[in-house]
Specification:
Elements (H helix, E strand, L loop, with lengths): L8 E5 L11 E5 L5 E5 L5 H24 L13 H12 L8
Antiparallel strand pairs: 1-2, 2-3
Helix pairs in contact: 1-2
Amino acid sequence: MTGHTPGPWDWDQGDDGTDYSHPYCTVTSEDGDLIIAEVNDRFDREIGAANAHLIAAAPKLLAALNALVSPQHAHSQDCTCPWCGARAAIAAAQPAEVQHE
């Protein structure tokens, strides 16, 4: 199993929103060599830009959660405390194993 593209990630508002053949915002690796995501929300450009910001912040958010959560905060599976919420978010960010046939 591999991890995500290492951060930091950057985002760029690629065009003025009138060229519908290209994404409105692009999230890339810091050097710009890898495209992480393309955001095509042209009906509400503010939402598109906000989504691109959130996607670009994902590596920093994941690193911050990993730094905050420790094994000492292990509770029951049905716990809804902030620590367990952070642990669940970390688990959701981990890639699932690909099943090969």
